[in-house]
Amino acid sequence: MQEASPQLENGYTRLANELLDALIGAGLTARQWAVVMTIIRKTYGFNKTSDEIGLSQLSAMTGLDKSNLSRTVRELEVARVINRSSGTHGHTLSINKHHKQWGLSNQQPQLPKQQRLSNQQRKGCQNNNSGVVESTIDGLSEQQPQNTSLKTTQKTTPKDNLSRSLRERFDAFWSAYPRKKSKTAAEKALAKRKPDEQLFADIMSGLERAKTSVEWLDKTYIPYPASWLNDGGWMDDYTPAAYTAEQLAVMDAFNGALGESLGEASPEVFSAERAKAIDAFLGFRPKDPGFWQRYFPWVAGSVTVPPHCGFDYLISREGFSIVSGGQHTRKDAA
To answer: Are 71 and 36 in contact (CB under 8 A)?
Structure first.
């Protein structure tokens, strides 16, 4: 059997010392401790503060049966050690890091004052009448400990509309969507769709078609992401955007002079950003509108291009200014 060799580079759970100290002194039972550590592993272990954790997951990690787990979770919730709220497929659990609100205590329950026996009294009774003392102690041991829990009023944490898998998919969608408006509404719209892997792939594919369409060239006409999701926008027909004849001519001029050495600018895959950059490039010298026809051949013959130089750099304001200003002009150029 190969010996275990835990390494930090294989993953670790980051936990504040103050919170760990509070847990150590909280007087948790073995079951409560197992549940708390599982929640910490599933949340802080993934750099999250809460997660949707079902009883099956808790059972798999703790080895406890679901009936005991359900009761233990309720105990921890009542004691405000953990927070529990409704999730998409179950309950969302998190540690209540405000440990001063916890109702658990590591102190042993105290007997009522009139029932306490001092050590001296107990010693004297043992000497004089041990039978009475034993009877008294036996009677006290059968009494139920006092309830030391605090009030169970609990403020629920804000509900996350998305499970962990949906959260990851939403983050990818939100990152790709060009008009970032009303994020909470967009989260709810995606949660309502509950896309599996295939549906999400269709959504992202439709989004890419929309982003390179004529309809979305003007961003003011791009719908809010929630509206797009609610209306099934990924299933719409879009007119693919294309470069204008003048934009294509600029790309052809570059490809003819520098495409072999620097890599060709593809006219087949439309990019709104590149089209906009070409239009800006054409306006650099308004008094010499045909300058671009001479620009690329001149670069090919007279300029030592900087590293990673390409079409987009040469037509950018920065690249055009540096190159045309002679910074990279060959010293032996005619």
So the answer is: no
Amino acid at residue number 161 = N
Type of residue found at 192: K
Query: Within 10 A of 188 (CB to CB), how many other CB atoms are there?
Result: 16
CB atoms within 10 A of CB 17: 7
Instruction: Compute CA 48 distance to the chain's CA centroid, rounded to the nearest angstrom.
Output: 8
Q: What is the pLDDT of residues 63-79, one digit of tens each?
A: 888 778 888 888 898 88
With contact defined as beta carbons under 8 Å apart, do 265 and 251 qualify?
A: yes
Tokens of 105: 């205590």
- pTM attached to this predicted model: 0.38
Per-residue pLDDT tens digits for 195-244:
888 899 999 989 988 988 888 888 888 999 999 999 999 999 888 888 88
Those residues with Cβ within 8 angstroms of residue 32's Cβ, 6 or more apart along the chain or in another chain: 72, 75, 76, 81, 104
Helices (H), ranges, 283-310: 291-302
